[in-house]
Design goal:
A hairpin with a 4-residue loop joins strand 11 and strand 12. 27% of the residues lie in helices and 32% in strands. By secondary structure, it is of the alpha+beta class. It is built from 3 helices and 12 strands, in the order H-E-E-E-E-H-E-E-E-E-E-E-E-E-H. It is globular. The strands form 3 sheets. Strands 1, 2, 3, 4 and 5 form a 5-stranded mixed beta sheet that branches. It has a 4-stranded antiparallel beta sheet with strand order 8-9-12-11, with no helix packed on it. The longest helix is centred in the N-terminal third of the chain and has 34 residues.
Length: 211
């Protein structure tokens, strides 16, 4: 706990500022929870709901480990997911967790995790034709630059950026690239303003309506 002694006027200003930031977060949380409940209550037998938790890295801990293990920093990525399906008007819940030795959480790794989850759903619930995803952190869209194009395959290779705040993005330490079909491109943005060698500032009005 951090204890600070400040003037009352400063405290009120900070409190109002924090509350202004809290209001949209509280509204979004309540709206999303209501939307998820409504989908669960009206789920048909050809649709699945998949709740994705953002991947995190965890250290290995060994019971009765020898002293040298203390210096071992080996980690694993855990990417849990909860799957809801309707089976004869009964809501069935399936919990899964993907364990990986890939420590970098980028679009390519998430895509690989989703491939495993989709394969599991197809094998266990072959009647499913539609999947609705919910995620705790990952954006529905990503911003990057096109670095290569395949006219034959109708897709482009995109180098993705990492969000710093609402309209400032930076290049990650390790390149995050993958191929994207033409139809998955939501919008072409105006060229951003350069802040430094790694950070760029986009026009707020240009990205405000991007999900």
């Amino acid at each position: 706990m951090l204890i600070q002694h400040v003037d009352i006027s400063y405290y009120i200003d900070k409190l109002v500022y924090r509350l202004d930031n809290l209001k949209p977060h509280h509204f979004i949380t309540k709206t999303q929870a209501s939307y998820l409940k409504n989908i669960k209550d009206n789920l048909d037998n050809k649709t699945a709901i998949v709740l994705l938790d953002y991947a995190e890295n965890y250290n290995f801990i060994y019971q009765d480990a020898i002293q040298s293990v203390h210096w071992d920093n080996t980690q694993a990525t855990l990417h849990p997911a909860v799957i809801y399906v309707n089976n004869n008007n009964n809501l069935i819940v399936n919990s899964t967790c993907i364990i990986s030795n890939h420590m970098i959480h980028n679009t390519s790794s998430i895509h690989s995790f989703l491939e495993v989850i989709l394969k599991y759903i197809k094998n266990k619930f072959p009647n499913i034709e539609k999947i609705i995803y919910f995620s705790d952190g990952a954006s529905l869209s990503y911003i990057g630059i096109i670095i290569e194009q395949s006219i034959e395959n109708c897709d482009v290779k995109v180098k993705f950026m990492k969000k710093v705040n609402q309209n400032i993005f930076t290049w990650p330490l390790k390149d995050d690239q993958c191929w994207i079909p033409y139809q998955d491109i939501i919008k072409i943005l105006q060229s951003p303003n350069i802040i430094n060698s790694r950070q760029y500032k986009f026009n707020s009005n240009d990205i405000v309506n991007i999900p």
